[in-house]
Specification:
By secondary structure, the chain is an alpha+beta fold. Helix content is 36%, strand content 29%. It has helices at residues 21-29, 61-71, 76-84, 86-89, 102-106, 129-141; strands at 6-16, 39-44, 50-58, 95-101, 115-122. Strands 2-3-1-5-4 form a five-stranded antiparallel β-sheet. This is Exosome subunit.
Length: 143
């Protein structure tokens, strides 16, 4: 994949008080390049419980290509479903949203599910939703 259809990609996972922070970090790193930096921010839940937010923003083309290559590990049926849902997964601000399974990522697999949020700011000129959907579709079809 020579061109990168995103300005940047944000990855984020919450680590709740009942979870091991190292395991959540490991799950998130399954999608990230080795040298990418991971931030950790402490927060508090509604009942005062600890929540750590692990996040990173990947802006370099090679980093974004790495994330996209990881999405290539999705099952063909999951990719087909994702392509069918692009209208709902790209917003009017040309951002693409996807959630991935934190448990599967911890086990070294990439699957759709809950726990890891991927948000990509799509490069689209002119910056319209329809144009952004085209760019994401092209990127996903070449995985």
């Amino acid at each position: 994949m020579s061109s990168v259809p995103f300005h940047y990609v944000d990855l984020r996972a919450f680590c709740y008080a009942t979870e091991d922070s190292a395991r959540v970090e490991s799950a998130l790193r399954t999608l990230m390049p080795e040298d990418a930096e991971l931030e950790q921010t402490a927060s508090e839940g509604h009942h005062g419980d600890r929540i750590l937010v692990h996040s990173t923003r990947l802006e370099r083309a090679d980093e974004i290509r790495h994330v996209l290559s990881q999405l290539g590990a999705l099952e063909p049926s999951e990719r087909e479903d994702l392509l069918a849902e692009l209208e709902e997964r790209v917003d009017d601000n040309t951002s693409f949203f996807l959630t991935l399974s934190k448990q599967a990522a911890f086990n070294g697999r990439v699957e759709r599910g809950d726990g890891i949020t991927l948000r990509g700011k799509v490069e689209a000129y002119p910056a319209t939703k329809d144009r952004a959907i085209e760019h994401v579709r092209e990127a996903l079809e070449t995985l």
